[in-house]
Design goal:
single chain, 598 residues, alpha+beta, seven-stranded mixed beta sheet, two-stranded antiparallel ribbon, 18 helices, 11 strands, globular, binds flavin-adenine dinucleotide
């Protein structure tokens, strides 16, 4: 069975030594009293919860899955899941970064992001139950009426109730403009909602007394397409003004999907049969309101893969040091043993270091994004808020797609390190691969993320937001460009930053003439952008490590950071050259292929 050690030191390194999050966030009045010790202490406790409570349930959850009683429509989750959730609520974990007005602890998103990385590393399937609630909280917090907020936010904050996100229907996933679920206005101001949703994560379970479904549906007079979608809050049980539960609302789980991974999470088919709901936000503006939840969820999905990357790496590393096979090509290293541990073989190291670099780069990007999210929402200076908001918008599709593509590659490598044993259920390694695969699909497939990045976030504003992020890279290059020891990191980064401008302009021009060119280039483009961001953070991490070493710090932690950054720039970053080349090959080799695909 796999083990999991919360990567607290690595988190502290990114938060306090690289990003300086406490000073950055202290500029926000609500975080005026923030200090590093508090952040560290909360995460230490959070790490204990993840590694001691939810991690031991990961393999059981995978083997048992969820079961549906078709007569009662109730779902039973795997053994121990419900009790772990009760402990989560008891510990106040749901409230971590929620608004104190609704009972939250008011800590920065950074705390929640790190806590959730650990929960995901420990048990992704379990984590999706509270994870989706958090998205529902965000959407209601941003778009709910005062009455909705008063009634529902305290329950989501305490974790007493959970939330879901009901978008997908059998005939539409990516293209939500086609959705058919109907909402009929009632005389009392509520709506009766009828339709079928599928693939609803945590859509039914036995954790809580109530579930709040956030449902996209159409009003009778709604315009066609995505401009005619509204958002509704549909509770499983109706809620009286005093908060007590009333009648069962006809929103039923009619089936559970049998799927490749995340077996412990109930992926529900949900039938709404005149279920009572209330409007969230404005009529026909449901997608905008839901985007709050979707954006939170996209960052959350990137974080899921980050957690899996870390745990898969940790277990592969332990195995590679213990498993004896063959001798090193340059002669025996463990002479007292019948063979050398496989960690002596260069390619095993490559697989381990790939996973390690994906975890460390992903963590820096993820924590940075959480910090910018806090600034975008709460910073007193409007310009800082706007700039931060732009950066979060730019990075969100990259976090979602780059981290999940990397997570799948990393878990695959980690499984490969185990050889045939990795393919066997008990080692838990193949579960990581299966669990990681969905992260590339839901919350908008990674292709859709790449179209969002290139089309909406980059080309639609002529690269303005990209240039904003580029300014930070320029500042780093200006500061470190004179430092010879940083040349191995700064030179490739500066080269890519320069190439990126030309690359973007070129695709923009091609796309202007033929919009399909954008679709032909976007996936490669997003990966190049991902490396640009990773390169920036790896250079910053290397700079901190070099300074610590120069000051005489002998902690091997800093050597490790330096070696990982070197590996990253030498072995992973150069992928950008081939990606730019394939993106530049144009769309004809994809679209002029009717004969090949006949
Ligand atoms: C386990 C699981 C959990 C899920 N949880 C939820 C949930 O909680 N709530 C919810 O509402 N949904 C959920 N989903 C649904 C998920 O978000 C969708 O499956 C996903 O968005 C893709 O939609 P689709 O399956 O209909 O695929 P389609 O939209 O049919 O896409 C099929 C393929 O076509 C590609 N494609 C589509 N349009 C384009 C385009 N314009 N350009 C290029 N390629 C394109 C896609 O990238 C994909 O590869 C879940 C799904 C699964 C499997």
């Amino acid at each position: 069975m796999p083990s999991y050690t919360p990567p607290l030191r690595d988190m502290q390194f990114v938060m306090h030594e690289v990003l300086n999050v406490v000073d950055e966030l202290k500029t926000i009045p609500r975080y005026g009293d923030l200090d590093a010790d508090t952040l560290n202490a909360v995460l230490e406790e959070g790490g204990k919860f993840a590694s001691e409570v939810t991690q031991p349930l990961n393999l059981i959850g995978d083997s048992q899955g969820c079961t549906l009683d078709k007569t009662t429509h109730e779902v039973t989750t795997p053994q121990g899941f419900k009790e772990a959730y009760a402990q989560y609520v008891e510990g106040g974990w749901a409230a971590l970064s929620c608004d104190s007005e609704y009972g939250g602890q008011g800590l920065p998103f950074v705390t929640n992001q790190c806590f959730y990385e650990m929960l995901n590393g420990a048990n992704q399937a379990w984590t999706m139950y509270p994870g989706l609630s958090h998205g529902a909280y965000e959407a209601l917090h941003a778009h709910g009426t005062d009455e909705q907020k008063k009634k529902y936010l305290p329950k989501l904050t305490s974790g007493e109730w959970t939330g879901t996100m009901c978008l997908t229907e059998p005939h539409c996933g990516t293209d939500l403009g086609m959705l058919r679920t109907k909402a009929e206005p009632q005389a009392d101001g509520t709506y009766k909602i009828t339709g079928n949703k599928i693939f609803i994560s945590a859509g039914e379970h036995d954790f809580t007394s109530n579930i709040l479904h956030l449902v996209l549906a159409r009003l009778p007079d709604a315009p066609k397409g995505s401009k005619g979608i509204s958002l509704f809050l549909v509770p499983k049980f109706m809620v009286a003004d005093d908060g007590s539960l009333g009648a069962r609302n006809p929103v039923f789980c009619t089936g559970l999907e049998h799927k490749m991974g995340i077996h412990g999470n109930a992926t529900a088919q949900i039938a709404l049969d005149g279920a009572v709901g209330t409007l969230v936000g404005e009529p026909n503006k449901g997608l905008q309101a839901m985007f709050v939840m979707m954006n939170a969820a996209r960052l959350g999905v990137g974080n899921q893969s980050l957690g899996l990357t870390e745990v898969a790496y940790q277990n592969a590393l332990v195995y590679a040091k213990e498993r004896l096979q063959m001798r090193s090509l340059s002669g025996p290293k463990a002479k007292d043993q019948p063979a050398d541990p496989i960690i002596v073989h260069p390619d095993v190291r490559k697989m381990l270091l790939t996973a390690k670099a994906y975890a460390e780069g992903g963590r820096a990007m993820s924590i940075y994004c959480a910090m910018m999210l806090d600034k975008s929402l709460y910073h007193p200076d409007e310009k800082v808020r706007k700039d931060a908001d732009d950066i979060v918008a730019l990075l969100t599709p990259i976090v979602k797609a780059f981290l999940t593509d990397n997570g799948f590659a990393a878990t695959n490598h980690a499984m490969q390190v185990f050889g045939g044993h990795g393919y066997i259920h008990e080692t838990g390694m193949e579960q990581f691969v299966r669990d990681a695969r969905i992260n590339m699909i839901y919350e908008g497939t990674n292709t859709v993320q790449s179209l969002d990045l290139l089309g909406r976030k980059v080309l639609a504003n002529q690269g303005a937001t990209l240039r904003k992020f580029g300014k930070q890279i320029e500042t780093l290059i200006a500061a470190e460009g004179v430092n010879e020891k940083m040349a191995e990191f700064i030179n490739p980064l500066a080269y890519l930053a320069d190439q990126m401008t030309k690359f973007t302009t070129e695709i923009g021009f091609k796309g202007f003439v033929n919009p399909d060119e954008v679709g032909g280039a976007s996936v490669d483009y997003l990966r190049v952008a991902g490396h640009l961001v990773f390169g920036y953070f790896f250079a910053r991490m290397a700079s901190v490590a070099l300074k610590a070493i120069a000051e005489g710090n002998t902690d091997p932690f800093y050597q490790a950071k330096l070696q990982t950054a070197r590996f990253y720039f030498a072995r992973l970053f150069p992928e950008t050259a081939s990606l730019m080349r394939t993106a530049r090959s144009g769309v004809a080799n994809l679209l002029d292929t009717d004969a090949a695909l006949a």
